[in-house]
Amino acid sequence: MTDTEGQKNEPSPNKSSSVAGGDEIPVEQIKARHKGVYLLPNLFTTGAMFSGFYAILAAMDGKFEAASIAIFIAMIFDVLDGTVARMTNTSSEFGLQYDSLSDMVSFGVAPAVLAFSWILNEIGRIGWAAAFIYASCAALRLARFNTQVDSTTKGYFIGIPSPAAAALIASMIWCSYEADITNQLAFLVAAVTALSGLLMVSNLDYRSLKELDLKGRVPFIVIFAVVMSLIVITIDPPRILFIFALVYSFSAPVLWLKNKVYGLKA
Q1: pLDDT in tens, 104-136
Q2: Homologous superfamily of 45-265
Q3: pTM above 0.85?
């Protein structure tokens, strides 16, 4: 269609486009819709989400060992997606948001459902309250991380990372899913589950491994330590992983308490 002068009415590339309701859409938004996403890191993120989703289904079906293992597999994918994105310079805002949603499924909902399906349902409201505290704190932890991602101290996390909290829950259940169900054990699991959630929203500083230079040279002793750690884990995976998760989870509270005590003495 032409105007009165016989020229086509084409929208300027620098102007906004109109929609049926009369509202205008900025050109920047139109371009953003057609912008692609990086494939490789997001494939690993999808693998992590799939593992977390399977863990939920397995937990609801009473397959507690499989659900625990699936959560650890999700952790491997979660480490790989961030590492690959940093090494290949394919980090993006989309990847950050997608990773957070995947973490909420794998390390927020899945551990809570696993704990409740295994034993927390035995103690009624206290059980589901503990599971909800964990899941809600995981959501708050991820939201806080996304809003403070550029302002946090490098080398440290504020609050325990959700994968580490999930590792504590998953390894604890992996160790004891065959144990006799008692109210005492149920209350203990409820306390650990709720405490893990509260640690995620705490202001305690947890050491981060994201700043490790994987492309640079390292001393031989580092490689030796990694190999020995893998050997130790293979001896008894659930119990060794539980010990690792327990030590990391309570490392920050112990250091905080130590600094408080020595600070008062000084």
Answers
A1: 999 999 999 999 999 999 999 999 999 999 999
A2: CDP-alcohol phosphotransferase transmembrane (TM) domain (1.20.120.1760)
A3: no
